[in-house]
């Protein structure tokens, strides 16, 4: 999460889709927010972004699970409003 330096690894191959990954991240980091992360929900203040092999940050929910697994280099949980700062 932004503001927290966390050196944890998550194997995306252990998950079958966006929702199971979101549940694991919620279990790992959800207590950092009063409302929880609620990743991939419209009303959530947080978004999951990833850095692809080309070094571009993209919103994880905007791509298929297969594309995410094939291209992810790094994951980051950020506030939705702050995601635009990556560009």
Automatic annotation (TrEMBL):
What domain of life? Eukaryota
Q: Does the keyword Repressor apply?
A: yes
Tell me, in a sentence or two, what this protein's role is.
Answer: Aux/IAA proteins are short-lived transcriptional factors that function as repressors of early auxin response genes at low auxin concentrations.
Instruction: Please provide the record's keywords in A-Z order.
Output: Auxin signaling pathway, Nucleus, Repressor, Transcription, Transcription regulation
> Is Ribosomal protein among this UniProt entry's keywords?
no
- Domain PB1, chain residue ranges per copy: 1-82
Q: What is its main location?
A: nucleus
Where does it localize?
Nucleus
Origin species, per record, is Brassica napus
Q: Which InterPro entries has this protein been placed in?
A: AUX/IAA_dom, AUX_IAA, PB1-like
What protein family does this chain belong to?
Answer: Belongs to the Aux/IAA family.
Query: PROSITE patterns of this UniProt entry?
Result: PB1
What protein name applies here? Answer: Auxin-responsive protein
Q: Name one Pfam family in it.
A: AUX_IAA
Q: How does it assemble?
A: Homodimers and heterodimers.
């Amino acid at each position: 999460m932004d503001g927290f330096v966390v050196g944890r690894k998550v194997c995306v191959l252990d998950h079958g889709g966006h929702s199971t990954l979101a549940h694991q991240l919620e279990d790992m980091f959800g207590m950092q927010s009063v409302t929880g992360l609620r990743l991939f929900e419209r009303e959530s203040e947080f978004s999951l972004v990833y850095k692809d092999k080309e070094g571009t940050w993209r919103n994880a929910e905007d791509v298929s699970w297969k594309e995410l697994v094939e291209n992810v280099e790094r994951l980051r949980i950020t506030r939705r409003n702050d995601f635009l700062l990556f560009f």
